[in-house]
Amino acid sequence: MSSNPPPPSLLFAFRGVRLLQALVAVAAGAVAIGGVLLLRSALDDGGPLLLAPAAFLALLFLWLFGIALRLPTSFVAVSPERMRIRFGGFVDTIVETRDVAGARNVEWPWWKGLGVRTAFRGDAALVAAWGSAVEVTLRRPVRIWLIPRVLPVRASRIVLGVKNPGKLTERFGPVKTQSNAARSPLRRGRR
């Protein structure tokens, strides 16, 4: 009796995560400098109105600094039963592999930006570098935080800027397209 062995477990790191970490750290530093200048101005001039923006910048600094610390721990791990996606503090979720409809290779252009990106139409991107990436289509959407614990988005298509995206595409295979009869009436074009 011959049976196919289960696919091996795979671990994918995000491409360019060190560059994104450096950019976030520089942004955190700039926010910290702005906050200190606002605080100093509030204390020197006695302007209590400047304390609120200074407090906001302090919170923004802490958030950016936390993201910079968590970015190097970003990965996509795929086992025969599950796929775990972790990207900074924005997403850390586990998806059953049977809920993955398929994957395809895509190019992520520079003008679409880096980090967590979305168009609020059921798609999101987790990218730290431009260039080759993989778009994973899910049967059930997952929650991704645009602003952690404040602004979520539900995504059923996720672009992942991982190293060696071809292996991830090969692991899940192409997306199975729905027949015209099974399509949602909202997606049908006019004739």
List the helices and strands and how they pair.
Blueprint: E1 10-13, H1 17-45, H2 51-70, E2 75-78, E3 82-87, E4 91-96, E5 100-108, E6 115-118, E7 123-127, E8 131-147, E9 151-160, H3 165-172
Parallel strand pairs: 7-9
Antiparallel strand pairs: 1-2, 2-3, 3-4, 5-8, 6-7, 8-9
Helix pairs in contact: 1-2
Walk me through this protein's architecture.
With 191 residues, the chain is α+β, with helices and mostly antiparallel strands. It has 2 domains: 18-68; 71-172, no CATH class. 30% of the residues lie in helices and 34% in strands. It contains 3 helices and 9 strands; from the N terminus they run βααββββββββα. The strands form 2 sheets. The chain has a 5-stranded mixed β-sheet with strand order 5-8-9-7-6, with helices on one face. Mean pLDDT is 86; it is low at 179-191.
Can you summarize this structure?
The protein has 191 residues and is α+β, with helices and mostly antiparallel strands.
User: H/E series, N to C?
Assistant: EHHEEEEEEEEH
Number of domains: 2
- Class of secondary structure makeup: alpha+beta
The major β-sheet equals: 5 strands, mixed
Task: Tell me roughly what share of residues is in helical segments.
Answer: 25-40%
Question: What gyration radius follows from the Cα positions, in whole Å?
Answer: 21 Å
Figure out the total of helices. Answer: 3
Overall morphology = elongated
Question: In what range is the share of β-strand residues?
Answer: 25-35%
Per DSSP E runs of 2 or more residues, the count of β-strands stands at: 9
User: Reading side by side through the largest sheet, how are the strands ordered?
Assistant: 5-8-9-7-6
Distance between the termini: 52 Å
The poorly predicted ranges are 179-191
Mean pLDDT: 86
- Please state the oligomeric state of the protein chains shown: single chain
